[in-house]
């Protein structure tokens, strides 16, 4: 893992997985909509608390990901919860721009299952609020 | 992995991880509260659709986990969502008994962060609705 510059018993209390990560769920304050799911390492969680804005660990880019660093769609964190097993984090956030998803939608969970087990399909049911080409310039 | 008895293109559409699993978030219909986080394999998701009740994959017990099989706290599934990367599932559910957590609480996310990065702590802020000893007999 990257250099550790973060301390505190509260971070030791989290049960990081073998890769030093935990799942993190971002839930919108007010609506309670689930906007996205990502991962955090120790530094990401410490930075989230320190800055009051959601910071994740990008597994694809292998670096800290300050949500909104490119899109401007920053997440202001109002509350942080930990689950009973201490291995999942829940953020209650305000989503700047109302768009959490890189597709330009409010939430990443826009594909709804329709049908039955033998013949099912996933249908995009949420509108694109902003063209991603205009989000990521 | 266990024997595959499940088919359907919609299952192939899910991006299962190296262990054949995806994260699954259970959200309460109506309140939109996030009740729990677990994992699903292909069979668990297929069984969830087939039965209309949440079925997870227990990594600790290495078998299908029909939520509520011991506690009676079954989850009736109203809607299933998939995220933009097709690697996280969201269930919208009705929680029988109003208790999702094995601690006897409504939600597993009952520990709230308080303090700051240098001196933080996790505080249990949700009531125990039923003594776990009376849930698991």
Automatic annotation (TrEMBL), chains A, B:
Cofactor comment: Binds 1 Mg(2+) ion per subunit. Binds 1 zinc ion per subunit.
Location of this chain's protein in the cell: Cytoplasm
Enzyme Commission no: 3.5.4.19
Enzyme class: hydrolase
Ribonucleoprotein listed as a keyword: no
InterPro entries for the chain: PRA-CH, PRib_AMP_CycHydrolase_dom, PRib_AMP_CycHydrolase_sf
GO biological process: L-histidine biosynthetic process
Domain Phosphoribosyl-AMP cyclohydrolase: 36-110
Keywords: Amino-acid biosynthesis, Cytoplasm, Histidine biosynthesis, Hydrolase, Magnesium, Metal-binding, Zinc
Reactions that this protein is recorded to catalyse: 1-(5-phospho-beta-D-ribosyl)-ATP + H2O = 1-(5-phospho-beta-D-ribosyl)-5'-AMP + diphosphate + H(+); 1-(5-phospho-beta-D-ribosyl)-5'-AMP + H2O = 1-(5-phospho-beta-D-ribosyl)-5-[(5-phospho-beta-D-ribosylamino)methylideneamino]imidazole-4-carboxamide
Principal place of residence: cytoplasm
Annotated Mg(2+) binding sites: 83, 85, 87
Pathway given in the UniProt record: Amino-acid biosynthesis; L-histidine biosynthesis; L-histidine from 5-phospho-alpha-D-ribose 1-diphosphate: step 3/9; Amino-acid biosynthesis; L-histidine biosynthesis; L-histidine from 5-phospho-alpha-D-ribose 1-diphosphate: step 2/9
Cofactor(s), names only, from the UniProt record: Mg(2+); Zn(2+)
Record's subunit section: Homodimer.
UniProt function note: Catalyzes the hydrolysis of the adenine ring of phosphoribosyl-AMP.
HAMAP family registered for this protein in UniProt: HisI (MF_01021)
PANTHER family tied to this protein: HISTIDINE BIOSYNTHESIS BIFUNCTIONAL PROTEIN, HISTIDINE BIOSYNTHESIS BIFUNCTIONAL PROTEIN HIS7
Protein name (record): Phosphoribosyl-AMP cyclohydrolase
Gene: hisI
């Amino acid at each position: 893992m990257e250099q550790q510059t973060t301390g505190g018993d509260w971070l030791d209390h989290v049960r990081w997985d073998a890769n030093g990560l935990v799942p993190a769920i971002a839930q919108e304050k007010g609506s309670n909509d689930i906007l996205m799911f990502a991962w955090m390492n120790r530094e990401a969680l410490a930075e989230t608390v320190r800055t009051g804005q959601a910071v994740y660990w990008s597994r694809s880019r292998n670096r800290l990901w300050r949500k909104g660093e490119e899109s401007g769609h920053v997440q202001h964190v109002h509350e942080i919860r930990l689950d009973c097993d201490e291995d999942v984090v829940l953020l209650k956030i305000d989503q700047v721009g109302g768009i959490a998803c890189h597709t330009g939608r409010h939430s990443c969970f826009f594909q709804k299952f329709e049908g039955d087990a033998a013949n099912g399909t996933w249908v995009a049911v949420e509108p694109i609020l902003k063209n991603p080409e205009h989000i990521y310039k």
